[in-house]
Amino acid sequence: MLKGAHVPGRLPRVARQLRSGRRYRSVAIEDLAWDVAEQPTSQMQTSRNGVIEQLFAWWLRLPGAKLPERPDPELMKQVIDAWYRRQETIRATAYAIPCDECGVKQGPCITAERKLVTETIHKPRLDAATKRVDQMLAEGERAAGDTQAD
Ligand SMILES: [Zn+2]
Description:
single chain
């Protein structure tokens, strides 16, 4: 298993061969930037990896390095707005289900030590809410697709 090699489910599961002179390296990237980059990079027939490499090479003034083309601002506004809506829906969904970690039936999680309300949602509860929301969104897209097909 290649560390850091993420192959989305809809692509054929083929081991990706790295071009020579490359290795998988770990970097931490904020969820918002990582998530919203998927659609524009796919539309522009590049990848998040490709854009990061171009930016890094440009920043380092490597010979021949050029800035990558930026995505359409209207597309990005839509994608970013949708990301925030999804996050809000996940939070609201998590608050509506009980948390096995801290025992709250609904509402914000509480810290174990001092029983204080926390902004952080315990991971199993957050994961359950994320799964529910993504199922709802997938069903919504299927329904919208059916309507368009009629
Ligand atoms: Zn909790």
